[in-house]
Structures are given as structure tokens and as C-alpha cells.
Amino acid sequence: MPGTASPSVSCRAVGGLGSMALSGLEVEKQVPADPRPGHKLQSWWSLAFCLCFYGFMSQMRPGESFITPYLLGPDKNFTQKQVTNEITPVLSYSYLAVLVPVFLLTDYLRYKPVLLLQGLSYVSVWLLLLFGSSVLHMQFMEFFFSITMAARIAYSSYIFSLVPPACYQRMAGYSRASVLLGVFASSVLGQLLVTVGGTPFSTLNYISLVFLAFSLVLTLFLKRPKRSLFFNRGAPACAGASPSELDPMNLGQVQPTGGKPGQLPASWRDSALAHMLRELGHTARLPQLRLWSLWWVFNSAGYYLIVYYVHILWNVVNPTTDTTRVYNGGADAASTLLGAITSFAAGFVRIRWALWAKLIIAVVTVLQAGLIFLMYKTSNIWLCYSAFVLFRGSHQLLVPIATSSSTLCTSWCCLSPMSLRPCCRACATSDRAATSPCRRPRS
């Protein structure tokens, strides 16, 4: 499930039960084939490239690593107590409040409008940072920032509507790496401007505002998908559209007689809400989806709390007034570079996740707990920076794996002809993965 910045594992759990009414031959005919060289392959590669470029540019915010020292410095002159107890907590609570509504709007409006909302919210954040002067202004700033975080589900879900199922794991790595590389470039730029150029924090925020305005313009040129997971399942596919998870999702869907494409069904059992509740129950019955969903919920909760407050911790460990000796941008750059490398590498990992997922999750979680304890106990800022880099990199390693594992399982296992009996062994158990059709099909 989304905590953040990133997509919910169970959000992409597409329904395969409706396809049980079809014969094995009919399902086999309707499941999209792997992409072949040609126009369609070039088309979705172009769309994926555009979306990854947008993901990179939307992260170009060189002032973000220095927001806390900016608020505590002479530009805003807030106290540490105000920042810690009155301003920063608004982000957590408002994020909780807007997460579900933004997710529903993402599906109902088919991604692009929510990306526009995200861009407008980013611009609002930096306008309030630059021109706000009270605690209330900063609280509104945190509220708009929570909207940008909740809207990240639009980007991470959108990428799967552009590519065929055989490419889910690789494209999850590509899209995640493009975002992290954008954060890396932004952090390096901000750190160089502060340390080498002696640029004031306020100037960094003006530069961030220019980048965000440009990414908002880029959003206008993104293609809007014709269908989505829940509210727009009945919309017709556009001519020449590339196969995606949205195609097998509709295998068992039958249009009502005389109904128009995209029209809401008359029966409540076919409504979007009922469909989402069925998918939630479907996810709870599959051990692999349940495992990754629970990991996403609890690990993301801890991850974002650390990311929210770590800059305040750094200010406590290293309370310097010399802005050229603040290396927050360097720490963010190193952590996101490591995260980008691990995310990209995760797209090429070929192991039996149904067998090894629990062990790997346990090892990574224990490592993260040790790094958090080290950050808490140390009084050395460089050791604190290093622990944060490893903590963030270890989290980013599992994000694309969690995304692609659940998506591939539901798309290729629960929608395959073999799913006419109870769902595949890799979804239902953890010891028979070698014979499971849930493995990535050959492209």
C-alpha cells in the first residue's frame, strides 16, 4: 500500500475472478502477447521515456534539502520547537487525511489530472516557503506538500498503463530510478550552490520554483490513458494502444446489453466500490500480496517518519550557523544515488521471491533498525549522514520489487488460463515457486 511518494502494492491487484467464466481457450486468446519489434513497441517505449523524463524533472528541487535550516535561519527565524512540534507534524496528519481521496481521484480521473494537481501543489509549497511569514503559512505549506506526496501514486500507477505485463518489473525499476536520479541531481546542484557558490537558501528556493513550473508545463503534454483500474474499466481501448495490465483486467467484464462503453453498471455488485472491496479481499487471501502489502505499510511508515525528521536531527547533531558547512544536500544526493542504483538493479534480479521474500525482508528490516539506532546515539554528523544513506538505499531496493512482484502475480497468474482453478502456487504458497506460472514470462 502506498505510504508515500510511492504506489500501493494492493492498489494494482487487478481482478482475475471475473475471467473464470471464460474458457481456457478464450482467455488464452485474449491475454495480450509479449511486445514484438514494431510501431507498438516503439510507441510505449516513447511514452515510458516521456513519463520517466517528467519524473526526473519533477524532482529538481535543489532547495528541498535545506528547508529545515531555511526555516530555522534568519530568513524565517522560526524556533526549533515551532518547526518540530507545530509545523512538521502537519505533514504526517494531512498526508493521512488526503491519501485515500487522492488515490480514488487518481483512478477516477485517469492519472493525468492528479499529476497536474501535484504540480500545482508543488508550486504552492514553494510560493508559501518564499512569501509566507507565519506558522499558519508554513502549516499550509506542509498541507500542500502532503498532497504532492499522496499524488505520487498517479505517477507510479501511470507507468503500468503504458507497458505490457512482461515489462512490469523492468519498468518499475526504470521509473523509480528516474525519480531517484532526479532527486540526486537536485541534491548535488543544491549542495554545490551552497558550499561552492555560497548561494543563500532563499535563492535555492527560487531556483526550485522555476524547475517546478517547468515540470508543471511538462505535465500538460503527457498522454491521458483511456482506462483505469476501477472507475473506468469499461472504456474502449484506443486504436493501436499497447497491451497493458488494463487489458487483461477486463477479460471477464461484459457490457450490459444496450449499454454504452464506459457507462456505470446498474448493479451495485459491478460498481467501482464493490470491485475495490473484492480486490481487497482477494489481496488478503494471497500470501505473497499480503506479505508485500504489510511490508509496504509498516516499512513506509517508518521510512517517511525518518525522512520527515532527519533534517531536524542533523541540526541538533551539527548546530552550525555557517551555511557553507551544512551538507544536507550531499547526504540526500548520496542516499538517492544508492537508492537509484539499487532500484535499477532490482529490475534485473531473478530469484524466486515467493521462496526468499520473507528472509530478505527480515534482513533488510533488521539492518534498517540498527541504522536508526545508530543515528539516534551518535554525535558525529558524518556517521549520522552515512547511516541515513544506507537506510534510504536499503528501502529503495525493495520498493520496485514489491511493486512488480504483486503486479506480475496478479496479471500473469490470476489472469492466466491456469487461474481457472485456485490461484497459482506462487501466490498461495512459498515453497512451490519453481513450478509456478507467476515467474516473468519470456519476452
TrEMBL record:
The keyword 4Fe-4S does not apply. Keywords: Membrane, Transmembrane, Transmembrane helix, Transport. One of its GO terms (molecular function) is folate:monoatomic anion antiporter activity. InterPro entries: Folate_carrier (IPR002666), MFS_trans_sf (IPR036259). It comes from the Eukaryota. GO terms for cellular component: apical plasma membrane; basolateral plasma membrane. It is found in: Membrane. One of its GO terms (biological process) is folate transmembrane transport. Belongs to the reduced folate carrier (RFC) transporter (TC 2.A.48) family. This is Reduced folate transporter isoform X5. It comes from Balaenoptera musculus. The gene is SLC19A1.
